[in-house]
């Protein structure tokens, strides 16, 4: 029971469990001891804050907004975040539970950080507590303070770092890099920059110089300052970390990503939070880190889909970073050779300022020459056309490195029986079981089901089952057969399962212990391979005919990116015609396709302008705004019925809601999946609809598991 007006955002935790101790409150009142009511959010699927009573014991400071507290919740204890400190509650005093502990040793999280979480919560339609608390390292969210105290102690033992060391060798910036750095550091308040630079144009050098000048200027003014640098892929953090550390031996640099050990992650997070870390390098999760002195944000490879979190809170780290920069009135730099459609549009409307690097930076380095190998003419045997084999052989003879890109792991995507037509369907998913030959397994990449390779066809008993198509393992096998002396290294999710193995593999490539590097998109991104002069792309065509309207944009970015690994150091191979240049060979049946023609000319702009024109005429993002309601159930009809009900729930002016449909991959791990797509020409209109709609959805009693995604990228 409550006193006074019911308040939707104030709930007593007592409702969720046993009665709290009331003596403290009575004691406080009777003795006029200082007491407060704290409004606390928890990691719970309830869009509400809970009131707790705080009573002073000796010498204790009054808790503040942004502090972490240990509270009773139902029958358990949990960590909460204080979002307001009040004199009284609308909860009946006797029902107010007392908090257990204030984590006073941890400085409060800033108002800015709470606003960031609140914005993300509202925009992505999640409770604030479910955004804020899971973004903190686990060591802060446990009942025990051992990890926290140990982390703080360690930090206290390392003294603050001195000034940047200017004695370190650094390349002289070229004119375009200079212009870019000058523009970035001259920003007054918020400004978003799109650093549009071809692969190898020295974008990293621009980031480092801009970061250095921003930090230096703050130090000259006697202000503390921090810079956040984000990369899309965990495997790129060690490389960047090494260059940043080498460049700034006097600065404190920490990394934040999901593969750090818990203790390390906590220490790095704390270093950022107490302002000790000057530079934070991280993957998408770093966008939610606490950096009280943040002065600039850099997002490398801003177009990369990895910036989109695909489970839980499905946020775009890039979009949140831009919001954060705007909120703090600081510059944000988005770097890419193939910017996202969204950023390209923002440049054309003047919201982002474009900075351009048109040349490769290293001396003598040139963009590689792209050749399209028509596989109708140059028939591929075992995946390799004669020109690709010849080019590989030439590199091997010269002692130069080659890279082969095939975005499909395993040996073959399907096994089948010639005699009866059986194929290796997963019994739990709308997908094939993939043949993994070295492991002697069939594996489903969607539900992780594993089977031994059947000795004979399960339907007709034929013992001669065939692999169909090819993955990286099969290409590796063939390479070893054709070039028995070559040192071949395969890098994909299977070959790098052990912690540290990806790093070891990349180190071997950098050392020159590998002749042919073969891999999935893991090898395509960002790496500055110095010895590589040939890139071969084995079979990119499937993406040309995808249902997904973003497939073309992704393929172009991916090919441009992988092509960009070649010829970065100005090493060259002399071709038969006497010209010396590194090369990219793309095997395709459709060499005339406009996407490949644009690639041939290294013409991102032409490609992007055409793409945007198509999106505009089809009313697709970035010209419209989308949200997706997904429903999962044992029975597809249940999921579809739920979506039908959801569709009819509220009037939706300015928002069009499509018919419910099964998802492209309808079944995963035995669960049927369907979706409802919402579209609007106006982002505010879509947002205005989503809020009450979510409330209405939450009140539906259903066995269907559902989730809402705002700005989906896979539909
Ligand atoms: P991007 O990120 O644009 O693909 P990188 O930043 O990795 O390119 O730079 C590519 C290479 O060029 C690196 O080896 C880097 O050391 C070198 N480089 C960058 N700027 C310069 C410069 N001004 N002069 C000489 N070399 C440079
Ligand atoms: Zn058969
Ligand atoms: Zn499966």
Q: What labels would you give this structure?
A:
single chain, 30 strands, 5 domains, alpha/beta, binds zinc ion, 7-stranded mixed beta sheet, 7-stranded parallel beta sheet, Rossmann fold, GIY-YIG endonuclease, binds adenosine-5'-diphosphate, 715 residues, globular
Structure description:
The protein has 715 residues and is α/β, with parallel strands linked by helices. The protein has 5 domains: 13-134, GIY-YIG endonuclease; 175-357, Rossmann fold (3-Layer(aba) Sandwich); 369-409 and 471-614, Rossmann fold (3-Layer(aba) Sandwich), CATH 3.40.50.300; 410-470, no CATH class; 625-710, Ribosomal protein S10 (Alpha-Beta Plaits), CATH 3.30.70.600. The protein contains 18 helices and 30 strands. The strands form 6 sheets. Strands 1, 2, 3, 4, 5, 6 and 7 form a 7-stranded mixed β-sheet that branches. A 7-stranded parallel β-sheet has the order 10-11-9-12-13-8-14, with helices on both faces. A 6-stranded parallel β-sheet has the order 15-25-24-16-23-22, with helices on both faces. Helix 5 (175-185) packs parallel to helix 6. Mean pLDDT is 91; it is low at 1-10 and 13-21.
